[in-house]
């Protein structure tokens, strides 16, 4: 299966969601590689919710 080289979320959106979910300090110190799988899933859920809200506008 081929991987996509394009990021789906912008770095600014990732930072904003990490801040909202309370693990921005981990991202700042260690990068997104240190974020738990659970928190990554929570980021995806939050991004989907943001996208759905934007579609409703």
Automatic annotation (TrEMBL):
InterPro entries for this protein: SASP_alpha/beta-type, SASP_alpha/beta-type_CS, SASP_sf_alpha/beta
Pfam families to which the protein is assigned, alphabetical: SASP
One annotated GO molecular function: double-stranded DNA binding
Record flagged with keyword Acetylation: no
Keywords: DNA-binding
Keyword rRNA-binding annotated: no
PROSITE patterns: SASP_1
An example Gene Ontology biological process: DNA topological change
Family, per entry: Belongs to the alpha/beta-type SASP family.
Function noted in UniProt: SASP are bound to spore DNA. They are double-stranded DNA-binding proteins that cause DNA to change to an a-like conformation. They protect the DNA backbone from chemical and enzymatic cleavage and are thus involved in dormant spore's high resistance to UV light.
Protein name: Small acid-soluble spore protein, alpha/beta-type, conserved site
């Amino acid at each position: 299966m081929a991987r996509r080289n394009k990021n789906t979320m912008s770095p600014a959106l990732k930072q904003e969601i990490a801040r909202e979910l309370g693990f921005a300090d981990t991202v700042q110190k260690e990068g997104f590689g240190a974020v738990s799988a659970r928190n990554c899933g929570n980021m995806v859920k939050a991004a989907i919710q943001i996208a759905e809200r934007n579609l409703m506008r």
